[in-house]
Structure formats: C-alpha cells, structure tokens
C-alpha cells in the first residue's frame, strides 16, 4: 500500500519532545544534572582535657568503666536491673581496689543501706552478699559504732515493711550485723527480741518451713549473745579458772532488759514446737526442713531457760529485787515447760523410722532433756515424768551404737550428772552412775566427752558438793569413786601430749582428790595407790633404758599441777622419786622445772611425806648424774647453749636442802661414805666439784672426815686438780673469766686442804711422784701433765690461806720443783724444742712464785 506523501512530510516536520535513551542491563544510572552534591569534607577538631576517659584517669573504675560515685548514684535508679548491676560494680571496685573501701566506707554504707528495703528480691540479695563478702569483712577491724548505727536504723525500718519478703530480709541483715559485730547486741537486745516475738506471732509463717528456719536462725544468734553465768562456765571448763584466778572479785551489774520479752516469747516457741510435732505425726516422717525448724525451736527454748537459770544463780548474791524477779520468772516458765513440752517426750513416730530419722529424733530428745535438767524445780515434777527422763538418760548413756554421734549429742547432758545423782533414789542413782562410768571409760581419751566426764567427776568428788557424804547410805558410790580415781594415771599416760586440755583437767582432778583425800580414809588409800601408776607419767626405767613420760613434753602449767599432786602423797614411794630424778636429768626439761621439783620435794619432806634416806638419796643421785653440756670434746659438736650455770645452781640448791636435814655433823656422817665414793669414782669434773662443795657445806672446817676417807680422796684429788687445768683453760682474750671459772673448781679443794693439812701433804707427794715417773716415758701427755701440776702450784701460791699452809709442805714442793728441773737438765730426753719450751716456761713461773714466798725460799 502506498503512503500518502502529504502525511509523510507532516510527520517529519514535527519536533521531538523526549529522547529515549536505552540503557544496558546492570549499569548504574548517573545522577541527574540538577542533583545537589551533599558530600562534606572536614577535619576533626581535638580539644585537650575534654574526653570522658581523661576525666576518669587515676580513678578506680568497674569493668564497665564506671566510678564508685557513678555506681552509688545508679543504686537509686528506677530500673531494678540497673540497681543490681550498680551493686555488682561496687563489689568489683572493692575487690580490685581495697583501699577504696577504707577511704569511703561510711559514705558507701550510708548510701547502700537505702537498698535494705528494696522492692526487688534480686537487688536485696545482691546487697546482702556485698555486705557479707566484702564490706563487713573489710570493716571488721574498724570502729564498729558508726557502722552499726548506720545499718540498724534502716534495718529496723525495713522490719516494718508490709511485704513479708522485705520483712524477713531485714531480720537477715540484722543477723549479719551480729555475725561481724556481736558486741552491738546489748544496745538493741530488747528491741530486736520484741521484733522476733511479733514476727513469730504471725501464724501464716509457721507453715513455710524455709521462712521459719530463717527466722529461728537469727533468733538463736541473738539468744546465744544473752549474758550468761560466768561461774558456771568456769566450773564446766576448768581450764578457764587459771585465767580468772587473779581477777578482782568485782560485782558485775545484771542487765535484765528483754526479760519480759523472753517471758512472752517462750510460750510462742513452745506452741510452734507443738505444731511441728503434730505435722510430723500427721506426715509420719521427719523431713530436713521440719527437723531443722524443730531443732532451732528447741535451741531457742534452751537459750531462754539457760538465761533464766544463770540470772537466778546471780540473784543469790544480788539485792532482793533481782532475786524476786528471777523467782517469779522461773515460776512462770516451769508450768509452760511441764504442761506442754513434756507431754510429747520422748519424741517418736508411729511408723518405722530410717536410721537417719532415728538419729534426728535422738538429737531432739537429748535437747529436751537438757532443757528439763536446767530447770531448778525439775525434781518437783511428777514421778512418772521424772522416770521417763531418767530412763532416757540411762539408756542413752548405755548405748554403744553410733558411738561418735551419740557422744556428740550426749555431751551437753554430762555436766548435769552430779546434780541429778544428788536428788534421785539410790537404785536409780546406781544405774545412772554405772552408765556414766561406762561412758567415761570407753570414750576416746582425746574427745570432748572425756573432758566433760572429768569435770563432772571433779564436781562430784568435791567435799563442798555434799555428794561424797552419800556413801554412808549408799556404799556403791565409793566403788564408782575408786574406779574414777584409779583410772586417772593411766589416762594421763595414754593421752601423752595429744590433748593438753584433757591432760590438764585430769591432773587437776587428781590434785583435787589429793586435797580432799585426808577427810575420807577410804579415798585416801586409793589416792596413795595411784602413785605406782603415776610414776609412768614422769619416767620409767625398763632394762636400763629410760622411757620419759608425757610430763617432759607438756606445758609448764600442767607440769606444776602434776608436781603439786606429788606433794599430797603422805608416803612417797622410792620408785616415784626415781622417776622424778630421771626427769631432772633429762636435757629436754626446762631448768626452772628442775628447781620446781626440788622445791616441791623439799616441802613434801618437811611435811613428813618422804623418808630421810630416800630424800638424801634423791639429791645424791642428782649431784652424781647431772651432766654439763657440752662437755669438752673437740670431736663432738653441740648446737645447744651450755647449762653450766644450771649445774652450778643445782649444786647450790642441793647443798642448801641437805644442810637443812638436821645437825651437820650427823648428816655428814650419814652421807660421808656415799660422798667419798662418788669423788673417787669415774664421774665428770663438775660432779666431783659438786660433792666437794657438799663436804664444805656440811663440814666447813673439815674436822669430821675420817682418816680412811682422806686416804681414799687423796688418790682422786691429783687427777681432779689436773682435770680442772685441762678443762678450764684461760682465754687469751679474757683471762679474767678463765681464772674465775678455774677458781670455782679449785676453791672447794682449797677449803678441804685448809681444814686437813694431811690431805694436802699426800696430794703433793702423789704429784711429785708423777713428775719423777715422767722421765721414763716422755710424750705430749706427760708434758701437759707437768705443765698442769705447775699451774696447780701457781694457783695455790695465789691463794693466801693455802700459801700459809704450804710452809708445812716445803719438802713435797721442793721435790716437784727439783724433778721438773731434772727433766730440763737431762740430756737423754727426747723432748722437742716446743715441749722443752713449755716445760721451761712452767718451771720459770713456778720458781718466780717460790722466790716471792718467804717460807719457800
């Protein structure tokens, strides 16, 4: 078809409004030509000291970079999670930077205490852990007054909160305060006890065992801080008596604040216990939560009753107003206990109990029994009720199964055995004492039960208790007393030094028996026989081997108590004296204890408890065997300090004690042979010196010594004098000390020479003979002896008294001098130049001394 030309031309003449541009797929469209360029190019402007990090430089921050100030501000944030995180941040800072707590503790506590009544459970728990683990331990050594006052204000305020959870947490916080600051309880005792009473009155809490347990835990802590009777504590724990022995007997005020609250609290607790018993029987089981609650209730009752008993005891020495208040209080609590609590005793379940439940029931029954025994009017209760308790006590003491478990929970009942046995009939008393004796005999020597039994026995054997007077009507009591007394020495040996507390209690009991024995002939006989086993407590000799007992290893206070026991033996056995002297010879025994033994034995002798022969034998044995250490031995090294001063003091004390035996002449004649035999025996120089000093003490003028003794001593004297020179050499750096030490050993012999010229003559002849014999067998030893003999003569010339009597021994002295000269002038000797020089030097010094003495020129 042919197009019209006019139409074609018309179309070609029209203009194009939009030109369509074809784009390839995937290409980005270019910006429009009229698009505005928004790109900005700039440089950062840095202003110094304007960054947040710079502001916190040098400050302690948490892991999130927050300072302590910021965290404390966030603890008041409206969001609970922020408050909790802030508390965790505070804990983080204090753990990393402990000094922050020391610097800001009061400000921190003042701010954080606001969270005690926080509405959020997790915030309160986090705050509690922060105080428990970080803040209070860090403030334990600081002044507690400001800290406690800051905390208690908000704690008591939180106790008025409507929400029970906040209420309970406030009690938990107060319990925490008492854990770290127990002395603050007295300031708030009445107020907090009233708060506990009000809380326990809310019956809906009693069915929630976890909440009740939490309440009772804090209550027990409060009750345990009530003032108690200090005298009872001293009787129960005899080791404290020494600590209080020298304290002035000052009358201490009794604070009865809170007594009325306790009076109101007791029936509430008894009611709680009855409800728990009813729930236990209805469920026929005893779960852990129920048991804990029942145990805590009984412990609370026990504390209240114990407080009333201690106050009643104190009221005996107080004004009548105090006494009347306590009597009224006791009359109030007793009916509550008798009418309600004892109705369920002994606790049991209808259905079969497991072994665990059986143990729990036993714990509760023992605690009820303790409460019963604490009451002053328990003996006035109905006979049927008393019989139930006595039967339980007897059967419990006789139980052997689960020994450790039973001993642990029977322990609180043992202190009441003396009081119990005083007020029950003879037949039942014998059965209870039989069971008690079995417990005392079979329990572990190192256990607390043994210590409690010893304390109870001490109370029963005390004459002031009146218990011991019952044996006139009940002879079986004496049998038990004898069994207890006879077991004490064996117990002490068995204990060794493993339990000093129990050892001390046992020794104190034995001492008390010795003190009271004279008033009871039967007990006196039994006490006397204990010394045969008691000697093993000190030491024993088996087949020439010395076995030291526990006495050596125990503390000085126990050692002194044991020695005081020894004093009370009216006739002391010689074997006991032997064991004591072996202790004195032990190097491990302190010197002060040696002198304590000597003093006690001297007192016992003066009291007529030791025969004179045994007493003298003890001291002679001590002088002959007490060794000086270290002895002069270049081979053996000794790392201990020398006891030379102790030996000198022992010698002085023994000489003093023996001189007090009676007439010196008679005493010397009695001991002369023993003394001379010891001097002539092979004992060390110090021991010979001790016996020489004993001779001078008993016979100062040496007029009583026999001719035979002089002959015997003359053979030992030369060697003794030479030993003195050998063992006490003058120190070149301090010759005065060496000369003084040598004179200590020479002066006793000079006294003997001065009183017995004949002895000096014989000794000089003996030494002259030795010098003359040296020429046939020269050696280093011979040269040393020659020099020693010369030194002895020089010391004699220095003593004015001996120098006067040497004129009667000119021949013997000249003989010694001439024999020394002959050795030097002899050409047949094999002396070395050094040996010849030593003899020449001794000869020259001796000649110079002789020339200055007119009587020997």
Automatic annotation (TrEMBL):
The residue ranges crossing the membrane are none
Residues in domain Pre-rRNA-processing protein Ipi1 N-terminal? 146-209
Question: What's the superkingdom here?
Answer: Eukaryota
Q: What is its main location?
A: nucleus
Q: Which SUPFAM superfamilies match?
A: ARM repeat
Q: Where in the cell is it found?
A: Nucleus, Nucleolus; Nucleus, Nucleoplasm
Question: Which UniProt keywords are listed?
Answer: Nucleus
TEX10-like TPR repeats domain location: 483-606, 647-827
Any one GO CC term of the record: nucleus
Q: Which InterPro entries match?
A: ARM-like, ARM-type_fold, Ipi1_N, TPR_TEX10
Q: Please give the family membership noted in the entry.
A: Belongs to the IPI1/TEX10 family.
Name listed for the protein in its UniProt record:
Pre-rRNA-processing protein Ipi1 N-terminal domain-containing protein
């Amino acid at each position: 078809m042919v197009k019209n030309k006019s139409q074609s031309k018309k179309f070609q003449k029209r203009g194009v409004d939009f030109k369509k541009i074809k784009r390839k797929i995937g290409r980005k469209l270019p910006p429009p030509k009229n698009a505005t360029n928004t790109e900005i190019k700039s440089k950062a402007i840095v202003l110094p000291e304007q960054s947040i990090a710079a502001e916190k430089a040098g400050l302690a921050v948490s892991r999130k970079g927050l300072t302590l100030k910021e965290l404390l501000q966030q603890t008041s944030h409206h969001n609970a999670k922020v408050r909790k995180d802030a508390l965790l941040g505070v804990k983080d800072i204090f753990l990393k930077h402990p000094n922050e707590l020391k610097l800001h503790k009061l400000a921190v506590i003042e701010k954080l205490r606001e969270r005690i009544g926080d509405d959020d459970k997790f915030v309160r728990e986090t705050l509690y852990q922060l105080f428990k683990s970080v803040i209070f331990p860090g403030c334990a050594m600081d002044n507690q007054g400001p800290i406690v006052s800051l905390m208690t204000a908000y704690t008591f305020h939180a106790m008025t909160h409507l929400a029970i959870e906040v209420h309970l947490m406030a009690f938990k916080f107060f319990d925490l305060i008492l854990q770290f600051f127990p002395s603050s309880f007295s300031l708030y005792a009445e107020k907090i006890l009233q708060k506990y009473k009000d809380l326990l009155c809310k019956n809906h809490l009693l069915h929630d065992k976890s909440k009740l347990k939490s309440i009772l835990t804090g209550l027990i802590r409060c009750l345990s801080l009530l003032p108690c009777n200090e005298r009872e504590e001293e009787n129960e724990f005899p080791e404290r008596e020494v600590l209080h022995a020298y304290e002035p007997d000052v009358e201490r005020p009794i604070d009865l604040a809170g007594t009325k609250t306790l009076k109101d609290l007791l029936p509430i607790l008894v009611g709680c216990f009855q409800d728990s018993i009813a729930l236990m029987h209805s469920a026929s089981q005893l779960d852990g939560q129920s048991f804990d609650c029942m145990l805590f209730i009984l412990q609370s009752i026990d504390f209240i009753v114990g407080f009333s008993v201690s106050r009643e005891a104190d009221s005996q020495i107080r004004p009548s107003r105090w006494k009347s208040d306590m009597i009224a209080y006791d009359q109030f609590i007793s009916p509550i206990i008798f009418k309600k609590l004892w109705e369920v005793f002994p606790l049991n379940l209808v259905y079969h109990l497991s072994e665990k439940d059986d143990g729990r029931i036993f714990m509760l029954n023992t605690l009820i029994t303790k409460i019963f025994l604490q009451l002053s009017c328990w003996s006035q209760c109905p006979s049927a009720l008393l019989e139930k308790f006595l039967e339980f006590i007897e059967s419990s003491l006789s139980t052997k199964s689960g020994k450790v478990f039973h001993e642990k929970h029977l322990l609180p009942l043992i202190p009441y055995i003396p009081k119990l046995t005083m007020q029950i009939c003879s037949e039942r008393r014998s059965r209870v004492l039989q069971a008690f004796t079995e417990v005392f005999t079979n329990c572990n020597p190192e256990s607390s039960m043994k210590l409690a039994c010893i304390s109870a026995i001490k109370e029963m054997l005390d004459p002031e208790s009146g218990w011991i007077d019952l044996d006139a009507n009940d002879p079986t009591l004496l049998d038990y007393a004898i069994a207890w007394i006879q077991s004490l020495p064996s117990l002490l040996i068995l204990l060794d030094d493993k339990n000093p507390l129990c050892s001390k209690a046992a020794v104190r009991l034995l001492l008390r028996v010795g003190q009271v024995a004279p008033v009871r002939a039967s007990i006196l006989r039994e006490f006397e026989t204990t010394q045969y086993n008691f000697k093993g407590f000190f030491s024993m000799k088996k087949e020439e081997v010395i076995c030291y007992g526990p006495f050596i290893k125990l503390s000085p206070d126990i050692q002194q108590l044991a020695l005081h026991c020894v004093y009370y033996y009216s006739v002391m056995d010689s074997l006991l004296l032997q064991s004591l002297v072996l202790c004195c010879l032990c190097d491990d025994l302190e010197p002060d204890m040696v002198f304590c033994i000597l003093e006690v034995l001297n007192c016992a002798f003066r009291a007529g408890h030791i025969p004179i022969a045994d007493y003298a034998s003890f001291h002679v044995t001590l002088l002959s065997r007490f060794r000086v250490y270290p002895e002069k031995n270049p081979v053996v090294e000794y790392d201990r300090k020398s006891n030379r001063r102790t030996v000198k003091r022992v010698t002085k004390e023994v000489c003093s004690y023996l001189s007090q035996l009676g007439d010196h002449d008679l005493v010397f004649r009695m001991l002369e042979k023993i003394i001379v035999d010891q001097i002539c025996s092979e004992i060390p120089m110090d021991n010979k010196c001790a016996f020489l000093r004993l001779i001078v003490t008993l016979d100062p003028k040496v007029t009583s010594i026999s001719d035979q003794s002089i002959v015997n001593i003359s053979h030992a004297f030369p060697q003794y004098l030479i030993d003195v020179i050998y063992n006490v050499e003058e120190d070149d750096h301090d010759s005065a000390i060496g000369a003084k030490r040598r004179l200590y050993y020479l002066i006793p012999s000079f006294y003997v020479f001065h009183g017995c010229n004949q002895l000096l003559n014989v000794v000089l002849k003996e030494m002259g003979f030795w010098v003359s014999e040296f020429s046939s067998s020269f050696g280093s030893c011979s040269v040393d002896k020659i020099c020693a003999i010369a030194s002895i003569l020089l010391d004699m010339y220095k003593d004015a008294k001996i120098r006067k009597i040497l004129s009667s021994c000119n021949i013997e002295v000249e003989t010694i001098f001439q024999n020394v000269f002959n050795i030097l002038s002899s050409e047949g000797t094999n002396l070395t130049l050094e040996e010849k020089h030593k003899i020449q030097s001794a000869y020259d010094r001796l000649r110079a001394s002789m020339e200055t003495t007119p009587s020997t020129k």
